[in-house]
Amino acid sequence: MLGTFLHAQPCVATDVVHFWEAYDKITATPDTVQQLALLQQYYLAKATPGLVALQEARNYTPTEYLHAINDYPEFWRSVRSNTTAVQASYPAIEAALDRLRQLYPALRPVPIYFAVGVFRTNGTATKDMVMIGSELALADDATVITELPAWRQPFFREYEPLKNIALLCTHEYVHTQQNELVENLLSMCLYEGIAEFVSCTATGMPSNSPAIAIGKARQEEVVRQFVKDLFLMSNNYDWMWGENRNALKTRDLGYYIGYEIAERHYQAAKDPQRAIRELIELDFHDEAAVERLVDGTRLLPAPLRKLNRAYEKQRPTVVSMDPFRNGAKGISPGRVQITLTFSEPLNGYNTGLDFGPLGEEHCPRISPNRTWSADNKNWTFEVDLEPKRRYQLLISNNFRLESGVRLKPYLIEFTTGS
């Protein structure tokens, strides 16, 4: 059974071979036009489905490849032997995936493609495959990183990539089994944190993400900040896939939130295999299922619904509009200045106007003239109104307080006279 499963999910590294063929030819000529043609001929034109998917997922361009090849010669020389010897890592990867299958017997086999990208992901996945960015994932402490941009260097020092290649492949493999992600902060945290916890449990290896240890050490502080940001929508990348721009000065703490929830769920379960199945098969579109999982772990200070109600009470509102009331009929056509008054001062920057339920046909033509009052409690905009029309305009939740708490949407609706 083991051999059959492993044969069904091969590791494929032909893109790595093709990359180095292209690299040797590119570095032998200074002609950039010829370099581009060589890259295309020897690497990109021979791409496996994995390389094609990797390029699409991270928007890699031929020009970026050439810049990286020409700008980082010491890096490429130092990482080359690790990438060409990737087959040496296959037994560890295969053993880790077999342990994952023992935890989750419904595991669906998919191929793992090793390719070379341009430093934007060490690994990613679709439902049908795992794609590994070998320039990141197969580096070790002998890899020369001094030529690389400063923002990229900490990854190599903090994550010990090659040492953790089996863990990375298992993490991405879990993603191939998960349901579609919903684009909100909690779902993003669960998606990544579940994959990290399950891969660590399967491999017996600790997470190599510093965020997990930091989150556990500073749990109260991390959870408090997470609750503040949970419903804001604008701070998601302070928690996921960011570069330390958050208040806690630590990237990817969302992995910790999801990991901690998954770990608590697993540890409390009477049937560990069922708990793993529930985690991997979580339907992110099923709000009740997400609530049951999160609330059941008691990581957050209150149930999700209670936290959401508390957030809703913080949201500012539109309290009035001039020169006519909302819902008015028979408004005179022509150019009109509309002034909104908010329940409290907003940040004076973010705004948002959108179509109402009746669509674009019922939206007035909006002038670019828009101004805030000195105290940011009022916002004025101009519209051109035609006679005998029914108009709608949505004041969206892109308006917000300085803290990021968003305005409750406000639908403006009125009709004009003749």
Automatic annotation (TrEMBL):
Name this polypeptide is given: DUF2268 domain-containing protein
